[in-house]
Automatic annotation (TrEMBL), chain A:
Keywords: Cell membrane, Membrane, Transmembrane, Transmembrane helix, Transport. It is found in: Cell membrane. CDD domains: TM_PBP2. The chain crosses the membrane at residues 12-32, 72-96, 108-131, 143-162, 183-206, 240-261. This is Carbohydrate ABC transporter permease. It holds the Pfam family BPD_transp_1. The keyword Transport applies. InterPro entries: MetI-like, MetI-like_sf. Residues 73-262 form the ABC transmembrane type-1 domain. Gene3D superfamilies: MetI-like.
UniProtKB/TrEMBL annotation, chain B:
Residues 98-311 form the ABC transmembrane type-1 domain. Pfam families: BPD_transp_1. InterPro entries: ABC_transporter_permease, MetI-like, MetI-like_sf. It comes from the Bacteria. It is found in: Cell membrane. Belongs to the binding-protein-dependent transport system permease family. Residues 1-27 are annotated as: Disordered. The lineage of its organism: Bacteria, Bacillati, Bacillota, Bacilli, Bacillales. This is Sugar ABC transporter permease. It is a multi-pass membrane protein. It comes from Aquibacillus rhizosphaerae. Keywords: Cell membrane, Membrane, Transmembrane, Transmembrane helix, Transport. The chain crosses the membrane at residues 40-66, 103-123, 135-156, 184-207, 243-264, 292-312. CDD domains: TM_PBP2. Its main location: membrane.
Amino acid sequence: MKTDIDIRKITMTVVMAIFGILFLMPFIWMISASLKIEEEVLTFPIQWIPETWNAVANYKEVWTGDMPFLLLYWNSIKVTVLTTITSVLVSGLAAYGFAKINFKGRELLFIVVLATYMIPPQTLLVTQFLLFRWLGLYDTHTGLILLNSFSVFGTFMLRQFYLGISNEIIESARMDGAGHFRIFFNIALPLVRPAIATYAILRFIWTWNDFQYPLIFLRSEALYTIQLGVQSFGDQHGSIYTLMMAASVSAIVPLLIIFIIGQKHVIEGIQLGGVKG
Amino acid sequence: MEGEVKGSKLEQANQVKLKKKKKKRNGDPFSGWQENLSGYLFIGPMFLGTSILVLFPIIASLVLSFTDWNFVSGFKSASFVGIENFKTLFDNDIFLKSLKNNFLILLAIPVTLMISLSIAVIINKYIYFKDLFKVIFFMPFISSVVAVAVVFRVLFHPSEGPVNQLLMSLGVNDPPGWISDVSFALPSVMIIMIWTGIGFNLIIYLAGLQNIPKELYEAAQIDGASAWYQFTKITVPLVSPTTFLLMITGIISSFKIFDLIIVLTDGGPANATITPVVYLYQQAFLELKTGYASSIALVMFIIILIITYLQFVGQKKWVNY
């Protein structure tokens, strides 16, 4: 009886593995094409393992050519890391405030913040754009960082975790004379470290993949992030598929690595929030 | 449990007393105004950011939507036109088409849900290496949409793309032109949406499946119910709250699809894949019609509000056990 079930399970696993490979075919094709010479990209039947390897030349062109991915990477890393840090700090502080400090108007302010969550960001683009031009934040990385730094999702999620910390720990620290800022940095923040990690990874992924804000709020090519770079690379080299695929691989792979390292956190965070980026 | 609650209440009461004592004694470490001040300091950055980046823009677009203005020419050239923008908007074929397209895109949601639920059930119960499979199906969701769109642009190429080459080798003589064909462009967008959306829906479904009591399946098994019977009579009804949640997030996020369309088709061919968001972007940032674009933003805002309201109403009626 037991072995019977196992055989069914093994068969099912094999069937799903085949389905999984088919599901990932676009990625496999992308990687394979990025290693080939142009003439062999569209041969049929598909040559999954390149006959003539051209990986070094393709990637060298992408990384150091006229839209150098080295620069795009640097810009993306800078914007993403700073956004993640700012956002975690802003959301962490607000979440602690909403969960653990009894101040006047707390409930009302929380509802106001929460209500802004429903507003589709695109409906704000026009006025945000005008505002940023007026403030001199248009076409700057600072502007881009600010746009992604005030996350209702992050605040809500971290607040849930702070609510889980017993008030007694905080009360007793306060009896010992610690102020809220000391409690926040020395007690509260370390206690919710897993939640912070989850949110930080999600924010990193969302910011790294963000295309809309850079498209609208950046103009100088020197400031382009990787997503914007892939798009304008496509405008220039759209017909050279090997280079396009090498660019796509370069845009996707770092994130896949972060995801695979932090997959438990990412999946838990998504399940917890039940939201899309 | 109850004892604990009472205990902590007692303690709180004690602490309140203590606080009061302390307050009287030395002019107070935790008085009201200090607590208020630290509260505002903690939520200050978040609230300020939200006000400047969300609340103010919403009010400003409300005002702008009644004007005819192009931001390049400065504030002086703005003129009040009443509801003119909204009239033009609802007479505009492209905008109406974009709304229609958005509703057609919604058809992808039930398909995504069905596929995701099936995979979730299989992963949950019938296979080994669950975590590995989760990662596999989740990959498209976390991948950059721009890069994904670039890849599909080549895969869907009408004459030399691998998809059509495969179809032709299978004997399909006249395969569709996918993203360059007016009638297949929107379905192509939907196929990619389904592909990228499965990961997210699957993960949420897996969480939902954990909430179904195992005893129900055990009882059904004893009664000799088939796997299909268990799926349709136990899993589907009991997972309906999750289905509802996913449908709503699906609908709302369908109004946000931007990257995919901009990179894949740019709204074309012949506006076949235009959506309100893409139209908004074109009018605001390419045609520079600031007032008109604000009125599009306002209409979208109202549509989303209506959907959210329906969600509150529907939640009570639709979700059943």
